Amino acid sequence: MLCGLPLAWLLLRLFEIGDFGLGANPIDELMDRLGEWGLRLLIATLAVTPLAVTLRKPWLMSVRRLLGLYAFTYLALHFLTWFVLDQWFDLRSIVADVVKRPYITAGFTAFALLVPLAVTSTDRWMRRLGRRWHRLHRLVYVAAILGCVHFWWQVKADWREPAIYATVLALLLGWRLRRARARSRLAKPAPASA
Ligand code: HEM
C-alpha cells in the first residue's frame, strides 16, 4: 500500500480530483515524478539485502520482489508517458531521441535491462533458471547505475538530487563488493604452511 501511495496521488493529480493538478507542464511533471519514484524504489530494492544482513532480519528479503516489481511498474509508466503522451507514438522521433540524446539512451538501456528481470521474477522462472537466475538478476546493478546517469545527465544546473541517489547507490554496491571479497577470501583453501 505504501509503494502504491505515490501512484494514487499522481492519479488524483492527473484527473484533477480535489484542487490538485499537475501544473503548467503536466507531462513533464508526470515524467519526473514517475521517474523519481521508479529510481527510489529500485534503490530501495537494492537496500533490502544489506539491511536484512546487517540487522539480522532475514524476513526483510520477502519484500524484495514486491519493491522490484513496483519499481518496474513506475518506470514502465514513466516510459509509456514518454512514448504515448510526449512522443505520440512518433517512432521516427523516438528512435532519434534514443540514438542522439545521451540521457534518453541511458534511460532506455536501463529500462530495457529491467524488462527481463520483471518477466523472470516469478518462482517458476527462478526454478527454471536456477543459478543463471542470480547471474541474470545482477543486471539490476547496471540498470540502477544507468538510471542515476540518466537523471544526472538531464539536470541543467542543480546536480545535488542525482548526486544523493548516486551516493546511496555507490554505498549499496560498495557493501556488496566488500561482502563478495570477504566471501571469496573465506572460500580460498588455507595455504599448506598454515
Ligand atoms: C525508455 C526509458 C526512459 C525514457 C525515454 C526516459 C525519459 C525521461 C525524460 C524525457 C525525462 C525528463 C522529463 C522532463 O522533461 O522533465 C526523464 C526524467 C527522469 N527519469 Fe527517465 N526515462 C527512461 C527511463 C528511466 C529509468 C529506467 C529510470 C530509473 C531507473 C528513469 C529515471 C528518471 C528520473 C529520476 C528522472 C528525473 C526526475 C526529476 O527531474 O525529478 N528514467 N526521463
Report on the architecture of this protein.
The chain has one domain. The termini are far apart. 76% of the residues lie in helices and 0% in strands. It is mainly α and 194 residues long. Protoporphyrin IX containing FE binds next to α2, α3, α5 and α8.
Q: What topology does this entry show?
A:
Layout: H1 5-14, H2 26-54, H3 64-86, H4 91-100, H5 102-119, H6 123-129, H7 131-136, H8 139-154, H9 160-187
Helix pairs in contact: 1-2, 2-3, 2-8, 2-9, 3-5, 4-5, 5-8, 8-9
The protein binds protoporphyrin IX containing FE.
**Low-confidence spans: pLDDT under 50, at least 5 residues?**
none
Task: Give helix % range.
Answer: over 70%
- Work out the number of β strands: 0
Average pLDDT figure: 93
Net shape? elongated
Question: Over the alpha carbons, how many angstroms does the gyration radius reach?
Answer: 19 Å
Question: How many discrete domains?
Answer: 1
Structural class estimated from helices and strands: mainly alpha
Measured between the Cα atoms of the first and last residue, the distance is 55 Å
* SSE sequence, one letter per element: HHHHHHHHH
- SS element count, helices: 9
Bound small-molecule species: protoporphyrin IX containing FE
Percentage of residues in strands: under 5%
Q: Could you describe the largest sheet, including whether it forms a barrel?
A: none
